[in-house]
Design goal:
globular, mainly alpha, AhpD-like, 151 residues
């Protein structure tokens, strides 16, 4: 029995859910969050969650934004890469801590680092972005979306 549901099939039967998630994701950008930071966060969270579909999608978007290829090549090990700006590092740390918070709540020093680089509205935007990509990842992984679904 094949339990895989393609992205196209889900787009037909779950169009309302996709529309709602897209609106949620857009609201993160509406708070002044930089598109490249948003996509970088989505890429990293998708790596954490093992979502090949979302990894391929967000790599494509970041390439379209002319994001630094060396950063794309090393985002999975961003701490060791020494290529990311302080703001990018703060956002990546926050994304990891929120995505893995079942093990521990986000640290106060991480919150302080965010506040040094982002406005309160942008932090809300980061939170929304992280929540929305975690939801996308869970849908994509559970239904078996693959990079081939991107067309």
């Amino acid at each position: 029995m094949n339990t895989r549901i393609s992205y196209a099939e889900f787009g037909k039967t779950g169009a309302d859910a996709l529309k709602a998630l897209a609106a949620l994701s857009k609201s993160g950008l509406d708070r002044g969050l930089d598109k490249a930071i948003s996509e970088l966060i989505k890429l990293r969270v998708s790596q954490i969650n093992g979502c090949a579909f979302c990894i391929a999608y967000h790599l494509k978007v970041l390439r379209g934004l002319n994001f630094d290829q060396a950063k794309l090549d090393t985002v999975v090990a961003w701490r060791e890469a020494a290529l990311f700006s302080d703001a990018q590092q703060a956002a990546l740390t926050w994304a990891e801590e929120l995505s893995l918070m079942a093990g521990a709540t986000p640290r106060e020093e991480t919150k302080a680092a965010l506040a040094a680089h982002f406005t309160p509205d942008q932090i809300i935007g980061l939170n929304i972005t992280i929540a929305s990509i975690n939801a996308y990842n869970r849908l994509a992984v559970s239904m078996g979306f693959t990079p081939a679904d991107l067309g």
